[in-house]
Amino acid sequence: MLTTESLHHYWHTLTGPGGDLRLFMPQFVLCLTIVLILLLRTFSDHINAKPFAFIGTVIGLLFALWNWMSASISHEPVNHELFGGMLVHDMFSIYMTVFLLAFAMATVVLTMLTGMPDTEDSADFTTLLLGSVVGMTLMASANTILMIFLAVEMASIPSYAMAGFLKARRASSEAALKFVVFGGASAGVMLYGLSLLAGMYGTIHLPTLAHEMLYQMTVTEEAFNPTLLLALVCFVVGIGFKLSAFPFHFWCPDVFEGAPAEVAGFLSVASKAAAIALLARFSLTLVGTYHHAPFEPEVWQAAIHAVGNYLSPVLAVMGAVTCTFGNLAAFGQTNVKRLLAYSTIAHAGYMMLALATLTVVGAKAVLFYLIVYFFMNLGAFAVVAFVRNVSGSEDLDAFSGLIHRAPVVTVAMSVFLLSLMGLPPLAGFVGKFQIFAVLYETGWYSLLVIGGLNTVISLFYYVNLMRVMIMTDAPDQAPIISLPNAGFATILAAIVIYLGILWNAPEQWSQIASTSLTRPERAVTHMEAPAADLVVEASPDKTGN
Amino acid sequence: MIDTVLLTLILFLPALGAAMLALPFFDSDEKSKHWMLINTIATFGLTLLLLGDFLELTNEQGFVPPLSERALATADGQNAPNDLVVRVPWISSSAFNIEYYLGVDGISLSLIVLTGLISVLGAAASFSVKKFTRGYCILFLLLETGMMGVFLSLDFFLFYIFWEVMLLPMYFLIGIWGGPRREYAAIKFFLYTLFGGVLMLIAMLGFYFNSDPNTFDIIRLQQIGQTTGPDAPFSPFFQRVMFVLLFIGFAIKLPAVPFHTWLPDAHVEAPTPISMILAGVLLKMGGYGLIRIAYPICPDGAYFFAVPVAVIGVVSIIYGAFAAMAQQDFKKLVAYSSVSHMGYVTLGIAVLPILSPVYYTWGMAGAMFQMIAHGISSAGMFFLVGVIYERAHHRDLNRFGGLMNIMPVYGALSIVIFFAGMGLPGLCGFPGEIFTVLAGFKFGAAFGIIAAFGVILTAGYILWTVQRVYLGSNKQYEGTPDITTWETLTVLPLVFLSILLGVYPDLLLGWMAPDVEVLVRDLTDYGRSLTDVVTAAK
């Protein structure tokens, strides 16, 4: 029965101190910004929406940082479920929210520097961008499988439009169409997998589902559950699409080639980061340990191990093939964005390798990698955009002899490429080093060797681009890249070098964020799941022991 | 404190100089080159200062305390004011424990001084560079920092970083300022070394995660690796696997047959000063890595693979010598002679199963001496080849002749350097070869005999080269100007050192001996305990 009192109570839980809406402020600010930009649009076509988007992302980022700060100083681990268990608010989701908002801000800055899109289209573009970012933050904090699907769609649909943003270019429209078709199909497959999970275990609440899965696995002592495997594979297909993992990567090179470099950079970092975060949360929740285990720890551990056996090989094989394929295919590319698309595929592969270990340290390595990847990949795409602005081309030829025209930008680009390759003392090396360290630590020697060999293979195309920039002669006198643009690239390059030498702080952040993934202190049955009763009844150990 | 400043300056002074070259002040080529020369001279001066400090570093018994003792004392917080060890925490988190950790002993110090010297000479030889001079100077100085870092680091992670840092400058120095096939040679160099680096990275992770507490400290890892008994953290199998990974990584750099194929390309295409650096310093990193890391940390692997490694050593000696003999290109000949000469280093290090501290000291000290001697003679040979190439614009051995008459000073200097490379008694090439051959003989007569046969082959190709290039008469090059004063000054230190070390090898062996002996003692002790276990089991 709804009474005034209970309404008041609900309102208080939403807006009071530590209330759901307060914790949700970063996303809320973004939504408000979108509404504001859309309203402005009704007044005039000639208002540049980018400054509004910038301010909106900055305010959102400040709220997210505030969340991080207050969570870091709080005495007990931060672990709230928001909106009736739909979302989860823990260090991991805050970390990802900060990351995604910071990247959105950087993308807005980049579009301000490159002037793409122009003022007239800026409202459309920023609306799509911010909407997509909201979806991505939801992906990182989704706590039910329904929310997973909604968040993925919310992040994807604006991306489709952004990929086709250069309306006059056929390649751009083709890319967008391809993206939509692929995206729609894989989303359908994922939804099917998720619905299988919900049907099998009678809940959509992720932690409860995980608990239920482990419970049933222990009770039935089934050696092999084909339905579960099918469900998990379907889910991985959906994520694989977002991650552009082999064999769901086909859209990626075409979309990156067709879309503006700014959008490609956004998709390459933010979209991948959100997908990898979702994958990390999903897989680690399934194998996370729970204090409320109804059985002996060994039995429970065996069930966790069994679930891991479904997921881990799929991720390992996919990751290994993805990074190998990406690195091999990148070699023959003549379009730099296409080349970077394959490089993106390869990097998604590296991150999947770390997640295949299904450990917190693996997630930590991935979270660190994301920070590094933020700067080096954004830098690489930014330079592509700058070169496109002055030469009108994104082909390898446009980069020839760049050192004579823009020495600073060339050095910065070399830093990005070498960092992507993983050469010390740049940040990319540290990221890769941590992934390799996790692979060694958890005994995945085969993946370690594959990752190492991939580093060697990737040498060819990264160095080839550098060779073109530095060792070939310039075709003619092209206009020089402007000072603010060069400054933007220089700052990013400086950060890449800095993070390669002093990486204490980001390592700590990723450590804090990743440990919240297993959530040992979380009560399992937050929602009114029918399975909850079953669990209590069937667990004599809980009270008996 | 003084040692902290000194070691850090040696390491980063070149990099600092490179950073300053980016300032607008260095707008002319001349300024950049002079700055580079000044910078390398200053660094070399600091390495000499370090040498002085090292020789003063004696304990009550009048010996220099071994590096491990000094390093561990520093770890316990008893940092002696001037013990030439620097330890500062760098990355310390729950997962990683990495230190900024530098230190020198006789083994690394001799290579550091060599690096300083060859860099000065390389910088002096770079005055003929005309293209993109400023970029050249920046890369050259960065390269020097990378090389110094490899020899100074005692933290494996730091070592690895410097090992890789030096790749990129080298790639560009070959790829931009090299010969006609420079891009191919540069990428080949990059690829080989990167591959070796990945193997090293895997070994590094292996050591880290199998040590307790986890550490990258090379000195600590050496102690862990030399622990024997059933609870040793590094099991024999683990050591063997890691040894193979490390050996391949270092053998690529060394280079040992069959990992040597990058070397002739890189050497031939690289500009003269870079060839000097490559032959004079870079190849030594491989040998140094074996002596400092692979052998002490994985002694079990070293014993297990002693015969294959020794075989690789003698095969390199013989193969390199025959390949050198077959060359028409002067520079390629010198390049293959490097393969042959570094084979003695491999052989000298490999022979540890003789289990005699005396004889293994011959091998180890011989290998170290050979590295220094080869650094001197091969850098000189590459420089001299460069001198004639600038005048004749080709390097075809069969088209030279009679240069001794036309360029008498050049001829005289060349004869000393080439004979030093040949290993003529009284010049620096001799002691290293004789020690390693003797140790090889103790290890297995066949190894000694084949290695000694390599000495004859070396004499064969060097004498034949001298005959074809310097002797006889040839009208074609009449009027070619003799070596200039600047060039003479560049090569003269090498000539001087070739003679000095040949006549008085104890000068160098004197610094190295205590540390070589400690290393040899540790390794032979380990081997003895292995054989004790075997005998007890019987």
TrEMBL record, chain A:
Major subcellular location class: membrane
Enzyme class: translocase
Annotated localization: Cell membrane; Endomembrane system; Membrane
InterPro entries the UniProt entry points to: NADH-Q_OxRdtase_suN/2, ND/Mrp_TM
Leader peptide range in chain numbering: none
GO cellular component terms, A-Z: endomembrane system; plasma membrane
Ranges that cross the membrane: 23-40, 52-71, 91-113, 125-142, 179-204, 224-251, 263-290, 310-332, 339-361, 367-387, 408-431, 443-463, 483-503
Domain NADH:quinone oxidoreductase/Mrp antiporter transmembrane: start-end pairs: 142-286, 306-458
GO biological process: ATP synthesis coupled electron transport
GO molecular function: NADH dehydrogenase (quinone) (non-electrogenic) activity; NADH dehydrogenase (ubiquinone) activity; quinone binding
Entry keywords, A to Z: Cell membrane, Membrane, NAD, Oxidoreductase, Quinone, Translocase, Transmembrane, Transmembrane helix, Transport, Ubiquinone
EC number assigned by the record: 7.1.1.-
Catalyses which reaction(s): a quinone + NADH + 5 H(+)(in) = a quinol + NAD(+) + 4 H(+)(out)
Pfam families in the cross-refs: Proton_antipo_M (PF00361)
Subunit annotation: NDH-1 is composed of 14 different subunits. Subunits NuoA, H, J, K, L, M, N constitute the membrane sector of the complex.
Family: Belongs to the complex I subunit 2 family.
Alphabetical list of NCBIfam families matching this protein: NDH_I_N
Reported function: NDH-1 shuttles electrons from NADH, via FMN and iron-sulfur (Fe-S) centers, to quinones in the respiratory chain. The immediate electron acceptor for the enzyme in this species is believed to be ubiquinone. Couples the redox reaction to proton translocation (for every two electrons transferred, four hydrogen ions are translocated across the cytoplasmic membrane), and thus conserves the redox energy in a proton gradient.
Descriptive protein name: NADH-quinone oxidoreductase subunit N
Annotated source species: Kolteria novifilia
From TrEMBL, chain B:
Alphabetical UniProt keywords: Membrane, Oxidoreductase, Transmembrane, Transmembrane helix
Residue intervals of the NADH:quinone oxidoreductase/Mrp antiporter transmembrane domain: 153-457
Annotated transmembrane regions: 6-26, 35-55, 107-129, 136-154, 160-177, 189-209, 241-263, 275-295, 301-322, 334-355, 367-389, 401-423, 443-464, 485-504
GO biological process: one example: electron transport coupled proton transport
Membrane topology: Multi-pass membrane protein
Intracellular or extracellular location(s): Endomembrane system; Membrane
Gene Ontology molecular functions: NADH dehydrogenase (ubiquinone) activity; NADH dehydrogenase activity; ubiquinone binding
UniProt EC number: 1.6.5.11
Single GO cellular component term: endomembrane system
Superkingdom per UniProt: Bacteria
Pfam families reported for this sequence: Proton_antipo_M
NCBIfam families: NDH_I_M
Sequence similarity: Belongs to the complex I subunit 4 family.
Protein name in the entry: NADH-quinone oxidoreductase subunit M
Lineage, highest ranks first: Bacteria, Pseudomonadati, Planctomycetota, Planctomycetia, Kolteriales
